[in-house]
Specification:
The protein is mainly beta and about 140 residues long. It has a single domain (about 1-125), classed as Alpha-Beta Complex (glutathione-dependent formaldehyde- activating enzyme (gfa)), CATH 3.90.1590.10. The chain is about 5% helix and about 45% strand. The protein has one helix and eleven strands, in the order βββαββββββββ. It has one helix spanning about 30-40, and strands spanning about 1-10, 15-25, 25-30, 40-50, 50-55, 60-65, 70-75, 80-85, 90-95, 105-110, 125. A hairpin with a 6-residue loop joins β1 (about 1-10) and β2. The longest helix is centred in the N-terminal third of the chain and has 7 residues, at about 30-40. It is globular, with a radius of gyration of 14 Å.
Length: about 140
């Protein structure tokens, strides 16, 4: 965990936010839904819901991607920004939306049993075949 204030935004800048407080290192998800939603695999840092302060959200839209979670994105440029489970007190945030340096590292890969056949996972990083529902 690291404690920082991170500024973030979508590609076009219409959605702007801050993460204030502790964040986790990055978890990369390789499930089919994440791959289809992001175009590759989706990675996120996690923070408490109250740590996310949205400063501009005119184009922020939420898609109920399953019975347990929704995904936030910019309806103007299409940037994939957030994932939040309905039953959790945290939000997942795409690290690519954060201003650098983030001081984050990739800690693990989840749902690797569903990983695409067009990329390789870096060696030495933890891997789980299925979802890690605690993150």
């Amino acid at each position: 965990m690291s404690e920082h204030e991170h500024a973030g935004r979508c590609a076009c800048g219409a959605v702007r936010f801050r993460l204030i407080g502790e964040t986790t290192d990055v978890i990369a998800c390789h499930c089919e839904t994440c791959r289809r939603w992001s175009g590759y695999f989706w990675a996120a840092t996690h923070a408490g819901r109250d740590a996310l302060v949205v400063e501009a959200d005119d184009t922020l839209a939420w898609w109920p991607s399953s019975d347990i979670a929704e995904r936030g994105f910019c309806s103007h440029c299409g940037s994939s920004l957030f994932y939040r489970r309905y039953d959790a007190d945290r939000v997942s945030v795409a690290p690519g939306a954060l201003a650098t340096p983030t001081h984050l590292t990739t800690a693990a890969h989840i749902c690797v049993a569903e990983a695409g056949d067009y990329y390789a996972l870096e060696p030495g990083t933890a891997r789980l075949a299925g979802p890690d529902m605690s993150s």
